[in-house]
Amino acid sequence: MYYENAQAAYSAGNFPNAKRNFLLAAETMYKLAKMSTGNLQKSRMDRAKRLIEMAENIGKKPIPKVKGPEPSEKEEDTGKQWETAEIPNISFDDIAGLEDVKKAITLRMIYPLKYPDKYKTYNKKTGGGVLLYGPPGTGKTMIAKAIAYEVNAKFYTVKCSDVISKWVGDSEKNINSLFETAKKDDLAIIFFDELDGLFGTRGKDIHNDKRVGEFLQQIDGFSGRSTNLLILGATNRPWDVDKAALRPGRFSQSIYVPLPDEKAREFLFRKSLEGVPLKDVNIEDLISLTEGYSGADIDELCDRAKEQPLIDSIKHDSIINITMQDFKYALKAVRPSVDKESLKEYEKYINNLG
Ligand SMILES: Nc1ncnc2c1ncn2[C@@H]1O[C@H](COP(=O)(O)OP(=O)(O)O)[C@@H](O)[C@H]1O
Ligand SMILES: [Mg+2]
Q: How close is the Cα of 280 to the center of ligand 2, in Å?
């Protein structure tokens, strides 16, 4: 299982995840080796060592060809450009910080479903899609899933960049069938990830213009009519989204998802390090050393810091604590992925929304 996960992560280019899974596969293999004897034990030990080598070499050596179809080929087999998930199991409690974001979403999307009568009484506006925007790795995809969990909705993801690269021409047909499918659910969320890819600003390319027009029509046709369908979008590049997509009835509310503040970073560290063997690791220091890091960066940082102690603990078959030294090393390797310049772009965008 870990091995398959590692390979999948590898082909998807997610090296930290691949590494972690190779190590977990190695650990499992060691345990199996210890339960066996003779040749079997020896071959399992060898395999475990090879797995550690693979983990250690990720990012250093050229990528070995992995067996099995690439993820993109699999998608093409099914002829679909969207993924279905049953109700995801990420809740608001798993999300660090973003209190304002959670509040806005609760009022806009969750309460209208839970307390429809109250909304009627106050004649409070509901409906319309929400667009989450902000730097990469801040939890936009996570929030989208958490919303589905909070309201018990089936969750459909459209990776907009995939739609464009692979399905020029067929896009409209596919999106149409997605809406038809989602409408049959009791409650469904269609999540347009990387929305800028789908609703690019018009006037630059005729294919894009045609597509934007047709998708907007789709959304107009369904929003308002079906109360059991919620539309969510996310983008790192809000300025590249066609303004027409932000009109009432479409993605009528935009919500900024910022980098994690101190409290959110503390939450992320505590979650990642909970129950893990530590020695002299000062979380306060880590919080101040990671100003400007995204949630995804902090995930990767912790992952890096765990690597060497994990490898050593496998090699010596004993528990090796993670130390501040491991974090110092990791901090050098994992730099903030969002630079100051792009943060300014967001500020500019927010001010222009006015
Ligand atoms: N606010 C957050 N709370 C908890 N985890 C987070 C948060 N932001 C980022 N992460 C971590 O980073 C990963 C990537 O986040 P993701 O939701 O895909 O970011 P985005 O969609 O904004 O690019 C998540 O799977 C999670 O592990
Ligand atoms: Mg995302």
A: 34
Both 8 and 18 in a single domain? yes
Q: Any idea what the CATH number is for the domain that residue 59 is in? A: 1.20.58
Least Cα distance to 289 among 257, 323, 321, 330 occurs for 330
The alpha carbon of 347 and the centre of ligand 1 are apart by a number of angstroms equal to 21
More confident residue, 16 or 92: 92
Question: Do 117 and 164 belong together in one domain?
Answer: yes
State whether 134 and 282 are in the same domain.
Answer: no
Q: Could you give the angle at which helices 160-167 and 71-78 cross, rounded to 10 degrees?
A: 70
Q: Which two tokens stand for residue 88?
A: 């995801």
Per-residue DSSP letter, 78: H
Both 137 and 271 in one domain: the answer is no
Tell me which of 299, 338, 346 to substitute to probe ligand 1's pocket, judged by most ligand atoms within 8 Å of the beta carbon.
Answer: 299
- Taking the centre of ligand 1 as the mean of its atom positions, its distance from the CA of residue 349, in whole angstroms, is 22
Give 173-229 pLDDT, tens digit per residue: 677 777 888 888 888 888 988 887 777 666 777 777 777 777 777 778 766 566 688
Number of domains in the chain: 3
More confident residue, 68 or 273: 273
Q: For ligand 1, which residues put their CB under 6 angstroms from it?
A: 95-98, 136-142, 234, 260, 264, 268, 295-296, 299
Phi and psi at residue 325, to the nearest 5°? -60, -40
**Within-domain flag for 346:** no
- Would you say residue 306 has pLDDT above 90? yes
Domain range holding 307? 260-337
Q: Say whether both 153 and 272 belong to one domain.
A: no
123/43 same-domain check = no
Residue 133 C-alpha to ligand 2 middle, in angstroms? Answer: 10
**Looking at the CA of 132, which ligand is closest?**
1
Closest CA to 299 of 263, 271, 333, 259: 271
Distance CA(131)–CA(256), nearest Å, equals 9
Instruction: Judge whether residue 305 has pLDDT over 80.
Output: yes
- Atom of ligand 1 at shortest range from CA of 271: 4
- Going by CA atoms, what residue is nearest to atom 9 of ligand 1? 295
Structure confidence at residue 72 (pLDDT): 40
269-285 confidence digits (pLDDT tens):
999 999 999 999 999 99
Q: Does residue 149 share a domain with residue 83?
A: yes
pLDDT in the model for residue 75 = 39
Q: Is residue 351 part of a domain?
A: no
Residue 84 placed within a domain: yes
Q: Look up residue 212 and give its amino acid.
A: V
Does 275 reside within a domain? yes
